[in-house]
């Protein structure tokens, strides 16, 4: 009798609790609590991601990384000039403009109108060679042309030399280069910064810096092309190559290793730990 009474009491209490937990008010309260928990969890995750991003930004604020050229920033800050008449005269002098203008020709003309505002030059042109390429060579070309010699038409010769110098300056400017040429320029900066000599392209620091340039370039690409799995695989392979080279540098010289990490904006966890890549690059 006692056991049956206890069982009945337990069943009654369970039924009462079940009745309370299944009421609409209790269900609404439970949903509200769950929603608050999820919001707090998302806020904590967002704050952690923000702190990690801020720490990474401070880590990458190095002299070498700041000296690299970002194609998006370069193209967004480049100004388009309105010197259509001068370019038309230049095309007429050079006899390169056809009688009709196709879409490709119009695009090329628009690219030529882009001013060389950054002061950076592609095609491995060094600062000492800029004046030769953009000033002396065009004047020599005009001087060799009998139609616009200084004796026959001095004003036209001077104007033609100025126009050709401007065209050459825009052609070799990094403002009008494609992403591949910009990456080639950044690789040259890496060799110049980390090389022990002018022709040093094989030391561990140089190779790690070159791979860092390529990694940064792929990161910018993958931010806008999340499903490009081919380049994502190349990105992961470059990360492992750089880590392997830096581990070799650590075995050779601990001082050079930590100096290289600081200049490249890396931590030892990025090199010595397991490299796990997120599915989406923020």
Automatic annotation (TrEMBL):
InterPro entries: Ribosomal_uS15, Ribosomal_uS15_bac-type, uS15_NS1_RNA-bd_sf. It comes from the Eukaryota. Keywords: Coiled coil, Ribonucleoprotein, Ribosomal protein. One of its GO terms (biological process) is translation. The keyword Transferase does not apply. One of its GO terms (cellular component) is cytoplasm. The keyword Translocase does not apply. Residues 35-62 form a coiled coil. One of its GO terms (molecular function) is structural constituent of ribosome. Belongs to the universal ribosomal protein uS15 family. This is 30S ribosomal protein S15. It comes from Coemansia thaxteri.
